[in-house]
Design a protein that fits this description.
With 149 residues, the protein is α/β, with parallel strands linked by helices. The chain has five helices and nine strands. Strands 7-4-9 form a three-stranded mixed beta sheet. α1 runs parallel beside α3 and α1 crosses α5. It is globular, with a radius of gyration of 17 Å.
Length: 149
């Protein structure tokens, strides 16, 4: 049976559920509520917009070079610390949210950035949505949901 393995890196965007940092930061910033960062905020992440992830998934499903391979799917150009992410969300959304640091009670990976070279070379994957555009699209979705609910 032909198979392929994908390793997604920090996927976010419209419809996201759960307690992901970007979703939480956007929702709080939209309401001008305090944004809480666990630890010093120096954890580094690469953020991948959902549309880019779906593009990578579709390429992996149909490209003949994908069979039997494993690929990182993420956006290596959207790399920022968690504190930098909070600052970017506040700035892009024109929020008045303050940012507060709290004690981190759990172990965390300090650096989570994908190498997407293999996915680019073998199946032509390249993330297209930059972080600021993704933040705006995510906020627009949640703003629309808030109006409907």
């Amino acid at each position: 049976m032909p198979t392929v393995t994908l390793r997604p890196f920090n996927i976010y965007g419209p419809g996201q559920v759960g307690e992901g940092a970007l979703r939480t930061f956007v929702l709080r910033a939209m309401k001008n509520e305090e944004i809480q960062i666990h630890g010093d905020g120096n954890q580094i992440r690469a953020w991948c917009y959902i549309d880019d992830f779906v593009d990578g998934l579709m390429l992996a499903m149909v490209h003949p070079n994908a069979v039997g391979e494993a690929f990182n799917i993420g956006n290596a150009r959207a790399v920022v610390t968690v504190y930098g992410l909070a600052q970017t969300v506040v700035r892009v959304l024109g929020s008045r949210s303050s940012i507060r640091f709290s004690r981190k009670e759990y172990a965390d990976v300090e650096l989570r950035v994908p190498s997407v070279k293999k996915a680019r070379e073998k199946i032509g994957f390249e993330a297209k949505i930059d972080l600021e555009e993704g933040i705006c699209q995510t906020a627009a979705f949640f703003q629309q949901v808030e109006k409907v609910a």
